[in-house]
Amino acid sequence: LTKYALQYDLFKTVTSTSRYRFTTTKGTTRTLSTTNFLLDKNTNYYYQYASGVKTGYTDVAGRCLGSTASYNNYNYMCILFGCKNSSQKRYDFVETKELYRWAFNNFSRKEVANSTEPVCEIPVELSTEADFVPLYFKKPFVTILPNAADYSTLVVKTKLISDSVEAPIKKGDVLGEAEIYYAEKIIGKVDLVAGNDLQKSTMLSVLRYIKNFFVSKYMKMIYAAIGLVIIIFILWCIFLNLGKKKRRVRYIPYKDGK
């Protein structure tokens, strides 16, 4: 919910403001203060990297805090539930700051995959220029990973739109998708795009049309009809031959002068 709400500038402005002064309709000046002490420089819980969002409390849930922070041009979110309630110490603020420090010190942005090297290739039909087109990441994939990440556990699984594609193909056409896994968990998806242009061959297109014509269902019906006619003709010939009577040959002895 917090991530969704932060898409709206007004929500982001309100939840990142520590104090707001306004004048009532009666002319009285009032000041509203945030309950998120991570934003308040006048408290011992102020945290320079924090940027929001909201506290919460019930007897059952305990102290809760949804907060955001920015560090090294990257945004973080920490959602904390069930902190114990104490009049001496606000554990929700203390533990949130500890979690942010841990994340800042142990995680960093890593370029897992670039867009300059081919990931895979896909067969191409109707082109005389090439039988395959290489596929690249549409953009470099950057994510947050542990500083001690084992890169041998990074796996890229590709899903192509089909077993093959037909020319023409333009560089940048989306022909698949890559799923990136770290430690057997998916951490992102990136579109796979064609690395170069391929023109369509007119000759191969004509040959494809002729081939498809001769294997079309209409031609198959014609082939079946011709085959049936041939079979009927053969059977008719056999029937006629069987119906003929054998010719009797009469032998006449030869005599001189007769």
Written account of the structure:
The chain contains five helices and 13 strands. With 258 residues, it is an alpha+beta fold. The mean pLDDT is 89.
In terms of topology, how is this protein built?
Layout: H1 2-5, H2 9-15, E1 19-23, E2 29-33, E3 50-58, E4 62-71, E5 74-83, H3 91-106, E6 107-113, E7 120-125, E8 132-137, E9 141-146, E10 154-160, E11 165-166, E12 174-182, E13 185-194, H4 202-214, H5 217-243
Parallel strand pairs: 7-11
Antiparallel strand pairs: 1-2, 3-4, 4-5, 6-9, 7-8, 8-13, 10-12, 12-13
Task: Quickly list its features.
258 residues, alpha+beta, six-stranded mixed beta sheet, three-stranded antiparallel beta sheet, 5 helices, 13 strands, 36% strand
The main sheet orders its strands as 10-12-13-8-7-11
Assign a percent range to the helix content: 25-40%
Low-confidence parts lasting 5 or more residues at pLDDT below 50? none
Q: How big is the Rg?
A: 40 Å
The residue-averaged pLDDT reads: 89
Main β sheet profile: 6 strands, mixed
**What global shape is seen?**
rod-shaped
Structural class: alpha+beta
Instruction: Work out the strand percent.
Output: 35-45%
Provide a count of the helices. 5
Cα distance spanning the termini:
126 Å
Number of strands: 13
Element pattern in H and E = HHEEEEEHEEEEEEEEHH
Summarize the structure.
The protein has 258 residues and is an alpha+beta fold.
